[in-house]
Every structure is written in structure tokens, then in C-alpha cells.
Amino acid sequence: MTRPAVEVADILHAQGDAFVAQHPWLSVQQRSVLRAIARCRTAALGGHVDRCDGCGYQAISYNSCRNRHCPKCQAQARQRWLHARERELLDVPYVHAVFTLPHDLLTLAYRNGPALYTWLFQASAATLREIAADPHHLGAEIGVLSILHTWGQTLVRHPHVHCVVPAGGLSGEGDRWVHPQYAGFFLPIAVLSRVCRGKFVEALRRAYDRQALDLAGGSEHLRAPKAWRALVDGLFATDWVVYAKPAFGGAPAVLRYLGRYTHRVAISNHRLLAFDGERVTFSYKDYAHGQARRTMTLTAMEFLRRFVQHILPRGFVRIRQSGFLANACRAARITRARTVLAVTAAPTPDPPAPTPPVPTPVHASTASVTTPPAPARATWTCPHCGAAMRLGPNLSAAHLVTLTWSFDTS
Length: 410
Fold this sequence. Notes:
The protein is an alpha+beta fold. The chain is built from ten helices and 14 strands.
């Protein structure tokens, strides 16, 4: 892959100091992330001299910051994570559901983001498991892989959780695999929306009663009980957005999908088109108009303001698993699921109901399932002869400065 024309680091090099000076409200974590991105793969972090086994060519490689918010440091982490998940995939179709936080809660999320994101994780996963356990819908224990995104295509705050779920689950006794009752139907979207809303608002109310919410700035008016009741009533007045996409076509499709969503933060460098020192132009998909490709230009200050609001607190986990995919029992339960799948034949689905119970049904896939190959490990090859470059020992930033000067003058 070629180097992007513009990187987030370029914007920080030009405007980062001015941005930090003009925004004293930045947290320690946000400042630390911006500093790490700006220093990533520069002499400031040290590096090493690599040598070609074939022709003896030498080159300096700078160290990465390895920050999870850095657009340049996610590729290898993503490959390692996908390789681990590859061993856990089941030979069944997978369903993708998205639970979105309502717009009315965005103001509250500015100062209470981690709490709201945690409740969205918990409410969405608990809702999927609860509805799936109901014999009227599926009657089985399911596994849920949840991935948090806090942004939209234009970097505005848009918190939502992507849930990847095997289409089916283990029976209560764990002795058989329960398939969906109808082809083209998994769980009722309208019911998922209402149950998730109830669980989330209950957690929100408990926090308000304990005075555990930070009601300052734009949400200060919510300290008044009347304003708070109006907010809660408004949350119940509309259906929360729960979107379900068609089922994936087996394990390889699941991995390709997860690779796009797991280790992305806000924006990739390859979406940045131009930067003139003051204004940033980037591409985005306009989902309101058929996913048309468009461009947007923002000042560097506005771009960085939008970017930093998606920096998560240190230690906050943005990929979580529950149900039979939970960490405590994942290996044993996956082995059990594979065992029962091997001996349980999928039933012939009944004809679809005349009036589907959901406005956007999820269509099960009949594509064959194959085991994807292990991802190839990326290696750096010599630009002169194509041989492998041997990694040298780590060097300090001070040593690299001297070494760089000797390379330039040789």
C-alpha cells in the first residue's frame, strides 16, 4: 500500500501546538495521544538500522508509537487480533446488528462518554441474549462480539455498537445447535429496539439518582428534575435505531468484515486528500444519499477538535464478547458448539410468515463455509535486490540523529 498523500501526523506537526494552546480543556489522555501520533515513526522515538542479507543495503527504520488511536499503528494489531478470532469462528452464517445511541444523549456524552458507552455495550448485548433465549424467538444461548464506534463519516460524534452474532445458538442443555425458525429472520428488530432502550434508560436513571453523572457545561440544565424528566420522556417517545444487515457468507466474509471495523479510530490516513497548512480535505460516504462518495473541507482546528473527541480513556475496552463467547468460558463453549454443529443437521426452514415481524429482516446466507488461510506476515524487502531486510538493534533518538547525518553525507 502506498503512503497516503496526507497523514494526521502532518496536521499535528503544522497545527498541533496551536490546537493544544487554544483548547485548555483537553484531558491528559488526549494530549498524550496527540503527542504520540505526532512522534510516531520519527527519530524522537528511536529506531534501528536494517541491513539487507543480499546486497548489504542499509536503511534507518523509526519506531512506532503503538498507540491504539494512531492511524499508522493499527495494521499489525488488527492482523494479530483477526488471526486469534479466526480460530473461534463457527461454520454458520453470521448476523451484523448495530445499536445507535440517540441524538438526544450526545450532549450528555461529552462529559459522560465512558459511562454511556459502557451502558450501550451492556444493554445491547443483554438485549440480544435475552430475546434470543426466549423460546418464542430462538430459545438458545448466543454469542455476541461487540465493537464500539463513536464517530460518523464526517468525524461528528455518533456512538454506536456493532454486534456480530452467529445465526443461532446453543440449547439450554448445550446438547444441540438451535437454528433460526425462518429463513430470512433471526431476531425481531422492533423488540430489540424497545428492550435495549429500556435497559439503557434504567442504567441512566440509576446513575442520575446516585448523582453519578457529570452535569456541567451543555448538560447543566439537566440538574433540574423537570428537565431530566423531559429528557427521559423524549427517549421513550421515539424508537431507538437498531439496524440489522444480511448474514455474512461464512467465515472468510466475517473476517473481511471485522478487519474493517475492529481497529479503526475516527479516520484513516488514506481518507485524507489534501492539507495546505490551514485546511484539511477528506473523503466520506454520504449514507443519506446511497453511500455516494463526497469530500469535506475543514479548518485544521475543527478537524483536530472532531478527532480528539473520539480518544477513549486509557484502559477502556472497545471490543467486548459475551454469551458463549465471553472470556471466562469461550474456549470450552466454542468447542461444545462445534461438537453439536457436527452432529446436528440444520432443519428445513419453514416458509416465511406472510407478514414479516420486522421491517428490515436479516437474510440468512447459504454460502459454503471454508476455513480462511492464516494471514501472511508482512516483511520488509530490500528496494535494490528484493532480499529480506534483517532488523538491527534498537537505537536511541540521540544516536539516530548522528547516524542520519552520516547516512546523508555518505
